[in-house]
Structures are given as structure tokens and as C-alpha cells.
Amino acid sequence: MRGLIAIGHITKSVGLRGELKVVPLTADPERFHDLTSLWLGRDESSARECRLAACRVTPKGAFLRIVSIDNKEAAEEVRGWYVFVPEEQALKLPRGTHFIHEIVGLAVETETGERIGTVTDVQNYPAQDIWIVGTGSKEIMIPAVKEIVRQVDLKEKRIIIRAIEGLLDAN
Hints:
Blueprint: E1 4-14, E2 19-24, E3 37-41, E4 48-58, E5 61-66, H1 72-77, E6 82-86, H2 100-103, E7 107-110, E8 115-124, E9 129-134, E10 139-143, E11 149-153, E12 158-161
């Protein structure tokens, strides 16, 4: 395990010179401008280091040119991959907030100790993030707000929630 953090998801190639369209997975898309190298891969274990040749950030996403990807065919090969940076380059988060990779995989329990399931995904919405919790037979959507999320314990790998009426019904 190298300690990489995903900061973007490659969605398509743009143009004939291999530019990559990246959906940022970071609160600050402008951070792509500060990179000279980054890691590309399907996941952290398969990621390889690459040099950044150029970057532009627009409201539609980040557009990256990678030194070793110089044509449309090479760009298409990495579509669906992620853009990673080493953990030490991660942005500092405000107190009480967490990276998506820290939340996914955590067990979810109620305040009374009832095990609900495991966080399988985090979806970003304007009002708040929604944590998708798989129970084995269904998925439950948990709003990531302090009224519901009572504790995130990274050491114990669990989240304690207040199960308000209707929250645990399948979506």
C-alpha cells in the first residue's frame, strides 16, 4: 500500500493529442494546477506515476495532458481510471470532515449498537454528502449531517448514527 488519495476520475479523452477530461473528487479543483506529477490507475495498487504536461480547469472539469499520453488511443486506455496523489499532498480538511476513502468501508451502527451495514459509496450533493450503506439485501442512504451522524471512529472503523424515523427504510 503506497498511501495514495484519489483526487479525480478520468471520464473521457478530448481531442487527438490525448488530453484527459477528469471529474474532480476534491473540494478544490484548482489544486490540479499545482501538480507536476500524479499517479494514474484503476485503483491505488495499480497506479503508476506520470508527469503532468499541462492542465486547465473549467466548470466542466479538469483537463489534463500527461507526458506519456500523447494520442487519443493512449487516452482511451486510461478512461475510467483515477488520478491519485500521495497522502502527504492531500489537502488538510476542516475538523470533523473526512476523505471519501476514509468513509467507504466503515461499519455503520445505531446509537443502540444495532449494526446496519457498511458504507459502499459516497455521493456529493449541494446540501450534503449522502453515504450509501449496503445491508446485504438493500441500500440505505444516510445524509452526512451532524444531526444523524453522531460519531466517525476511524480507529474502530465504524460510524455511529441516530436512526430517526424512516431513515433505515430501503431506498
